[in-house]
Task: structure prediction
Amino acid sequence: MTVNAPSGPSSSTSVSHWIEAARNGSSEALGSLLELCRPYLLLVANQQIQPDLKVKVGASDLVQQTFLEAHRDFAGFRGDSEAELLAWLRQILVNNAAGITRQFRDTQKRRIDQEISLSDTPLANLLQNIQDLGDSPSAQAQAHEQDQALHEAISKLPEQYRQVIHLRNYERLSFEEVGQRLGRSAEAARKLWTRAITQLEQLLESSDGSR
Result:
């Protein structure tokens, strides 16, 4: 795709001149080259950004990141034409888009893994009342002590944390159902629950340390 050059010499003449000047160290010429390519790169960026990522990163941000890398790595550009320059910049942009997508997916996976690990903690077991501590007097005393400590810690949590723990761990609702009850999305409910569990664990650890 060919983009319109600024007013002045013809596009091919301008690009060749600017490429030569940029190779000779002219930052002004390199800036003119990049601005010439901006409309095309914005179109490519909009195609490369996944729909669910568009609220987190804009096409202009991706293009700006590409420009920064182009400034840094221009010495490695070996072309002499507008088409070669566009192809070079497009490859940088596509690589950046892939990196952003990969980073976002990895962050999501770590968050989900963290939530799964939280679900497997003794605290989660306590919340779901699935610990089998036996019927001996000592086991019953331990269970009573744990239950008392748990309820005391929960009472210190903010109201929204108490609500999400009750809905998720006592009523056993899905995150989608929890979100509906709280007027949030399922993902927002999941995040709220994760923060609530983390703070509850901290309160319980603090309580154990003060004894």
The domain at 121-209 is CATH 1.20.140.160 (Butyryl-CoA Dehydrogenase, subunit A; domain 3). The first helix runs from residue 11 to 23. Residues 98 and 202 are 37 Å apart (CA to CA).
